[in-house]
Design a protein that fits this description.
Number of helices: 11
Order of helices and strands: HEEHHHEEEHEEHHHEEEHHEEEH
Number of strands: 13
Strand content: 25-35%
Low-confidence stretches: 7-13
Shape: rod-shaped
C-alpha cells in the first residue's frame, strides 16, 4: 500500500501531484484525505502511517476503524461527537484532542484538525485533515500545571502572608495568612495598588517608599524591611517584609513576591525589655525608691489598674511598692484575705 493514494481499489481518488506527495511526506504531522462516500482514505502521508503503527509495505488497508481502534476508549465518544458536529449543515470543519495507544503500549496525546469539502449541492464529500502529536506539549503543560498547583498549595498554606505585586505595585496574589493577618480578603485586595489599600502606618510611609525604590532599582534581588501596618479593623501591627524581586532580561522589575511576618508580639516584648532595662539603669541608693520605680513600670507594661509589691513584716502584709493605689488603701494589713497571701 502506498502512502500517497491510500486504498486505491474501489475509490475514485482525486489527483494528487507528486510535488504535494513529497512535501506531505516530509511533514512531521500526519496528513490525510478521507472520502465520505466510499468511506476510504484517498491519501495518507508517511507520518500518518507512523502515528497509527501501520506498515505500508505489509499491505494492510488503512480504514477509519483501524485508526479508531488505536484511540483510548474513553475518548471515542468525544471524537465522534466532534466529527458529527463538523458534518452538520453550515459547518466547515472541526477538531478534537484525544489519547492514542501506540502498538508499543505508549500513550500519546493527538490533536486532529480537519476541514469539510462539499459538492455543488453542499453535501459533505471529503474530509482533509492534519494530525499532530502533542504529547511533549501536553507533558510540559501538565508539568507546569503541577508545579503551579504545588506553589499554590505551599503559598495558600504558608503561616506567613504571601503578597505578590506587579510592576505598578498592584496586588496580583493575596494568599497564605494574608487575610488572617490583615483582615482583607483576596477579592478586596487583588487588582488594587498598595497605596490604595491604606494599610501602611502614616509615619512609616517614607520607609515603604524607600523600599519600593530599592525594589525597582534593577539591582536588588531581595529586600528585607519592617514597618507598621494597619489591619482592616484599624489595629496597628508590626510586620517584617521579605521581598523577592523578579527581573526581566534588561533588569526591569516585573514582579515582587512578599512574605510577611507579624512581629507585633516580638516588638512589644522588645519595648517591654527596653523599659525594664531603663528602669534598672535609673536605680539609686534608696531600695524603696527602686522598688516603686519597678512596680510602676510593671504596672504600666501590664496595663494594670494598680500595682503593689508586698512583703510580710511582723505578721503584717506591707505594701512596700505602690502604683496608682485607690483612695483609702491600707499599706499595712492583716495578711489573711489578701490573694497574694492566701494563694
Amino acid at each position: 500500500m502506498s502512502s500517497n493514494p491510500a486504498n486505491e481499489k474501489g475509490a475514485a481518488p482525486q489527483r494528487i501531484s507528486e510535488e504535494f506527495r513529497r512535501l506531505a511526506n516530509r511533514s512531521r504531522d500526519g496528513i490525510y484525505r478521507y472520502d465520505l462516500t466510499t468511506h476510504r482514505f484517498l491519501f495518507i502521508n508517511n507520518m500518518f502511517l507512523e502515528y497509527y503503527g501501520i506498515d505500508a509495505e505489509g499491505g494492510r488497508e488503512v480504514t477509519a476503524k483501524s485508526v479508531l481502534n488505536s484511540f483510548c476508549p474513553e475518548d471515542l465518544d468525544k471524537v465522534k461527537k466532534a466529527r458529527d458536529e463538523s458534518l452538520a449543515p453550515g459547518s466547515t470543519g472541526g477538531e478534537a484532542e484525544y489519547r492514542q495507544i501506540r502498538p508499543d503500549g505508549s500513550l500519546h496525546w493527538m490533536h486532529d484538525r480537519w476541514i469539510i469539502i462539499t459538492d455543488e449541492t453542499g453535501k459533505p464529500v471529503t474530509i482533509e485533515g492534519i494530525v499532530r502529536d502533542n504529547t511533549e506539549r501536553k507533558q510540559a503543560e501538565n508539568a507546569l500545571r503541577e508545579s503551579e498547583e504545588r506553589l499554590r498549595f505551599h503559598t495558600d498554606n504558608s503561616p506567613m502572608a504571601m503578597v505578590e505585586w506587579n510592576t505598578d505595585f498592584i496586588v496580583t496574589r493575596w494568599t497564605g495568612a494574608a487575610e488572617k493577618m490583615f483582615g482583607w480578603s483576596a477579592e478586596e485586595t487583588i487588582g488594587k495598588p498598595i497605596m490604595e489599600l491604606r494599610m501602611i502606618y502614616e509615619e512609616d510611609i517614607p520607609i515603604v517608599q524607600s523600599v519600593m525604590q530599592r525594589l525597582t532599582d534593577g539591582k536588588s534581588k531581595h529586600v528585607v524591611s519592617s514597618n507598621r501596618n494597619y489591619t482592616k479593623k484599624g489595629q496597628v501591627i508590626h510586620c517584617e517584609w521579605y521581598n523577592s524581586v523578579l527581573h526581566d532580561s534588561v533588569g526591569k522589575m516585573i514582579s515582587v513576591m512578599s512574605q510577611v511576618l507579624d512581629i507585633t508580639g516580638r516588638k512589644l516584648a522588645e519595648i517591654r525589655l527596653a523599659r525594664l532595662n531603663n528602669c534598672f539603669l535609673q536605680f539609686g541608693v534608696s531600695p524603696d525608691d527602686n522598688i516603686n520605680r519597678l512596680v510602676a513600670v510593671c504596672g504600666e507594661l501590664m496595663n494594670a489598674t494598680c500595682a503593689l509589691y508586698n512583703r510580710l513584716e511582723k505578721n503584717l502584709l506591707c505594701s512596700v511598692g505602690q502604683w496608682r493605689t485607690p483612695a483609702g488603701f491600707k499599706p499595712k494589713d492583716k495578711p489573711n484575705g489578701h490573694i497574694c497571701y492566701d494563694v
